[in-house]
Amino acid sequence: MAKPMGIFVENDNAFALSAGFQIMRFKNGLEPHERVNLQFDACYVPRETYLTGELDSHDISVDRDGQIIFVNTRFNCLATTDPRHSFRALWRPPFISALVDEDRCHLNGLAMENGEAAYVTAVSRSDTIDGWRDRRNDGGVVIDVRSGQIVCEGLSMPHSPRIYQGELWLLNSGTGELGVVEGAATGKGTFVPRIFCPGFARGLTLQNGFAFVGLSKPRYKRFEGLALDQRLRDADSEPWCGIQIIDLAKGTCVEWFRIDGAVKEIFDVAVIKGHACPMSIGPEAPELIKFITHQA
After folding, report:
1. pTM
2. Cα 200 to Cα 66: distance, rounded to the nearest angstrom
């Protein structure tokens, strides 16, 4: 599968995924008593696929009406699928003057609240092609989709905004910090870091008092010079790729695993409940040809 990015779990048996030039909805084809290879109690396969072209789609979600919403980074907007075109634009930041094929502000993250788009993150408020790269250290913003107002600024490459227990959480990737935006609802929020993570943090889900945080090795040829570099040197640490599970009450990492080898980046993290050992089959996997299920 080419460039898997945002993932959104709709329920125990379905999730949506943005990947490369496709937007997909995966469904579990197994009944509760069925197993694949006597082991896997769920098998997710792409049942709905939309060919969008390379939009550099990032976060993805599904609204209260079942409509897919995804961050169309290349066109600086929130979008949905369209039966005729590559996408249909739903919203763009007020500082973006036109719907054009230019990654101007590097819109990337989407937080949903009560089934509707609530907040987005962007690396900058730039309105020129590729302008965000010059604002990586402190140009990051959080925007309230409903009002169009910037509710937090001065961030360093923010990603993965999420609403959890009435608070707006996000990852300030350029500093390696997980934290909350206090006062976002007032329109004048401040980012308050809660814990440092040893890597370029992207991908966040919060469940039962825990934060599941994805970590990537920084792409130094493009993202060098961020505060994260100095934080790692101060801690005498190297950046690593993997997932940390953080106890929000204690502010400590209670479990983790590292990924070594060819995989160096994680974009998103999600939790699937209701299954002990799930699997998935990608759209290009040969196993998909023979995986056939039907309603009893």
Report:
1. 0.95
2. 32
